[in-house]
């Protein structure tokens, strides 16, 4: 099983913010990190944000990573307890019990009865540890499953800046033809798939590491799209079939390869896609600098969408870059 390390050199990796999974009942379907219902099948994670996950009362979720001796890990889940109450547990993968959701043998836990859970743990064992993070439903509210967002990051936590440009009206935007997404769905305006496109990120926001990857999901399958960025955001503007929230000024960047011009991303059969090259390379204005916050969205073709304008946008994400 491939493991990852939360390296000492990283003060924090991603400038993401929780997209609260509230206002809509979770769909009891497997998320992309399933099947991970035991310590033995735990999904390996890097530090970063993971959004739109689901857990049920009969199927806990488990995630694994390595923590270096002396390092600290911080983990948070964001959810609505009105739908169902969730708890967060941290286990040593090599010690029994692991992933039992009990108060015996765990390294850390967060089990309040309110929205969201957070835990922190420092490895003082004198050796590196392989750990398992467990998300377990404690009690059902209005549903026997719940949606949640997960963030995993090193110490100290920093750089969190709000996501933006949701298609549910939470940012004050109105989708062009009544194609709003469900409240709390964390999506852009509805496209031809019946859902809105979502933007997420993984890897490190360190410019020297240059490993940050943007991923769009729930866009139209097998279509062209382009990641765009700017240093400045604006109030949501109806544009094509979606909402655009980046300033249309001289710092608007369409990511491209200097040798071939605009370098599009082609979504796969599920409507997902990632940036075709390093984000720092695609920023031909060189605005991506340490300490600078950059907003990103994904533009994509939406020819058969609910509006007649032929294209759409994902929700947006702000990332603060590190040295």
Could you list some keywords that capture this structure?
22 strands, 323 residues, mainly beta, Immunoglobulin-like, six-stranded antiparallel beta sheet, five-stranded mixed beta sheet
Outline the structure in words.
It is built from one helix and 22 strands. Helix content is 1%, strand content 38%. By secondary structure, it is mainly beta. It has one helix at residues 279-282, and strands at residues 43-44, 48-56, 61-67, 72-78, 84-92, 108-110, 117-122, 129-140, 145-154, 198-202, 213-217, 224-230, 233-239, 242-246, 253-254, 256-257, 261-262, 265-266, 273-274, 293-302, 310-313, 317-320. Strand 20 (293-302) and strand 21 (310-313) form a beta hairpin. The protein folds into two domains: 39-154, Jelly Rolls, CATH 2.60.120.380; 198-320, Immunoglobulin-like.
Per-chain topology:
Layout: E1 43-44, E2 48-56, E3 61-67, E4 72-78, E5 84-92, E6 108-110, E7 117-122, E8 129-140, E9 145-154, E10 198-202, E11 213-217, E12 224-230, E13 233-239, E14 242-246, E15 253-254, E16 256-257, E17 261-262, E18 265-266, E19 273-274, H1 279-282, E20 293-302, E21 310-313, E22 317-320
Parallel strand pairs: 1-3
Antiparallel strand pairs: 2-9, 3-8, 4-7, 4-9, 5-6, 5-8, 10-11, 11-19, 12-15, 12-18, 12-20, 13-14, 16-17, 20-21, 20-22
């Amino acid at each position: 099983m491939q493991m990852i390390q939360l390296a000492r050199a990283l003060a924090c990796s991603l400038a993401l913010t929780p997209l609260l999974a509230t206002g809509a009942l979770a769909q009891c379907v497997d998320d992309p990190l399933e099947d991970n219902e035991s310590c033995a099948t735990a999904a390996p994670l890097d530090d970063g944000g993971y959004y739109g996950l689901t857990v049920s009362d009969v199927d806990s979720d488990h995630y694994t990573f390595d923590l270096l001796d002396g390092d600290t890990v911080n983990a948070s889940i964001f959810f609505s307890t009105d739908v169902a109450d969730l708890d967060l547990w941290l286990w040593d993968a090599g010690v029994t019990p692991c992933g039992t959701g009990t108060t015996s043998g765990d390294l850390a836990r967060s089990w309040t009865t309110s929205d969201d859970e957070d835990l922190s743990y420092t490895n003082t064992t004198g050796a590196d540890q392989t750990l398992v993070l467990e998300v377990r439903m404690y009690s059902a509210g209005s549903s026997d499953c719940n949606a949640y967002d997960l963030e995993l990051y090193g110490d100290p936590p920093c750089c969190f800046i709000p996501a933006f440009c949701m298609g549910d009206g939470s940012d004050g935007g109105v989708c062009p033809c009544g194609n709003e997404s469900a409240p709390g769905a964390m999506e852009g305006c509805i496209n031809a798939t019946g859902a809105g496109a979502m933007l997420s990120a993984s890897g490190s926001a360190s410019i020297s590491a240059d490993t940050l990857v943007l991923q769009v999901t729930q866009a139209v399958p097998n279509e062209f799209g382009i990641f765009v960025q700017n240093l400045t955001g604006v109030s949501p503007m109806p544009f094509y079939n979606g909402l655009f929230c980046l300033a249309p000024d001289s710092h608007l960047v369409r990511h491209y390869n200097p040798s071939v011009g605009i370098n599009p991303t082609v979504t796969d059969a599920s409507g997902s896609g990632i940036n075709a090259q390093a984000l720092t390379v695609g920023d031909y204005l060189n605005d991506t600098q340490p300490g600078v916050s950059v907003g990103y969205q994904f533009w994509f073709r939406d020819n058969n969408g609910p509006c007649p304008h032929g294209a759409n946008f994902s929700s947006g994400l702000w990332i603060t870059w590190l040295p």
